[in-house]
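Quick one, tokens below. Sequence please?
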């Protein structure tokens, strides 16, 4: 059985925690898109970890972790990450890398930096990990696939060709040092040595695994609103963040994905530029940021303070719908325990009209939040394991959100740890 774990919002919903938790019952965990630009923070028996490339299921002895063909594979980052968890006592993970995955090259990272520099104040707020130049090369068909590393002559010829193309831009657009084919070839050969023991046809491996009835998790990065098609274009990421893409980025049949667990945060946070209708500012935002997540809402990769906002029904309902949600995991609810009253954005006002549909970007930029206020519960709900034991106002908040978004909340996360979870039976 294949299940997907994906985000309803702008990312940082706590997918890592939910994946780590559900991986206990899984055989295989697959990353199917994105790269080392965003991170998952996981707290478990081994400590606290920020993962960027490894799937969040690597902490168990019994799991196999797959880097699928849809991933932007930064080989040095992957290997640093493996080493860093092994150094902290985690058993050496079993990892397979798709022979069809493409690699983030050092020049992708440079082009990302140069382009942000060139755009100045109009930049996208990129993490400068090379992701946009990487995917752009993939679709221009000048990317390097892992399988190509093993074809010596063709690799040399391609390295020369790529340098020619890239050097035009480096010289005339960015005025930066040029690439040398011999350096590029050296980099590629280093990557070959590092990745060789792990490479396989992961799609064929997954086909066998599905047929053998294995339990497979697909782990998404970021969330619905960062999807290049359905998100807040152009302030989006460069690969699809949707469960549907899980089939493509892992190489499995779409109908094999049985459950789509959409992780939805009890308040909002976002990184990077772009419309954020329920955003709050000043002291109100600082306090939520300070108390948020596990030790504050700061980017796992960049350390950047996240933008903060109240729960956005319009964005979350859309975010859940576009994922094809079967189950909602409602996370970081414990963080809201300090508030007397909790505002929720239940609709948008656009050009004087009220709507609950999430519009495309041009309209979204004009949207103003319509807020409703719910009473807070004013206590710490961490440690509670049964739904009935949650304070009444807390249950009311959950049920209000569930009713408004229109998808069943079957799990409630009330702390960063694996055990901080409340299952709602019968949902
Ligand atoms: P991801 O990218 O979706 O995995 O999310 P991040 O890891 O960037 O952000 C989630 C943060 O919230 C991490 O620091 C988690 O440890 C933390 N976290 C996850 N679930 C909960 C929760 O229910 N309560 C609290 N307080 N923190 C949580």
């Amino acid at each position: 059985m294949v299940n997907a774990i994906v985000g309803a919002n702008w990312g940082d919903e706590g997918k890592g925690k939910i994946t780590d938790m559900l991986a206990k019952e899984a055989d295989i965990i697959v990353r199917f898109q994105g790269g080392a630009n965003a991170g998952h923070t996981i707290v478990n028996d081994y400590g606290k970890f920020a993962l960027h490339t490894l799937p969040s299921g690597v902490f168990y002895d019994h799991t196999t972790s797959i880097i699928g063909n849809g991933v932007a594979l930064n080989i040095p980052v992957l290997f640093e990450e493996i080493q860093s968890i092994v150094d902290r006592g985690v058993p050496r993970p079993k990892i397979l890398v798709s022979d069809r995955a493409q690699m983030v090259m050092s020049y992708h990272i440079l082009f990302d930096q140069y382009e942000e520099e060139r755009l100045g104040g109009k930049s996208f707020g990129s993490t400068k990990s090379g992701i946009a130049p990487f995917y752009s090369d993939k679709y221009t068909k000048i990317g390097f696939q892992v399988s190509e590393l093993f074809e010596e002559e063709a690799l040399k010829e391609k390295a020369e060709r790529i340098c020619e193309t890239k050097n035009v831009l480096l010289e005339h657009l960015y005025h930066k040092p040029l690439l040398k084919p011999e350096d590029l070839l050296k980099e590629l050969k280093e990557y070959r040595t590092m990745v060789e023991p792990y490479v396989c046809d992961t799609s064929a491996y997954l086909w066998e695994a599905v047929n053998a009835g294995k339990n497979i998790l697909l782990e998404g990065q970021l969330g619905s609103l960062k999807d290049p098609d359905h998100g807040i274009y152009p302030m989006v990421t460069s690969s699809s963040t949707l469960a549907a893409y899980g089939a493509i980025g892992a190489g499995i049949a779409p109908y094999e994905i049985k459950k789509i667990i959409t992780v939805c945060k009890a308040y909002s946070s976002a990184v990077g530029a772009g419309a954020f209708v329920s955003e709050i500012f000043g002291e109100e935002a600082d306090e939520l940021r300070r108390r948020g997540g596990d030790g504050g809402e700061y980017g796992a990769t960049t350390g950047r303070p996240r933008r903060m906002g109240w729960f956005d029904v319009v964005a979350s309902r859309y975010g859940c719908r576009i994922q094809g949600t079967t189950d909602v995991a409602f996370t970081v609810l414990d963080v809201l325990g300090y508030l007397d009253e909790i505002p929720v954005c239940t609709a948008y006002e656009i050009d004087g009209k009220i709507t609950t549909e999430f519009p495309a970007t041009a309209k979204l930029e004009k949207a103003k939040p319509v807020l409703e206020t719910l009473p807070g519960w004013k206590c710490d709900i961490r440690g509670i394991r049964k739904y009935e034991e949650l304070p009444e106002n807390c249950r009311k908040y959950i049920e209000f959100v569930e009713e408004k978004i229109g998808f069943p909340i079957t799990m409630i996360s009330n702390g960063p740890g694996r055990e901080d979870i409340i299952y709602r039976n019968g949902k």
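The radius of gyration is 22 Å. Residues 2-87+203-423 form a domain with the Adenylosuccinate Synthetase; Chain A, domain 3 fold (CATH 3.90.170.10).
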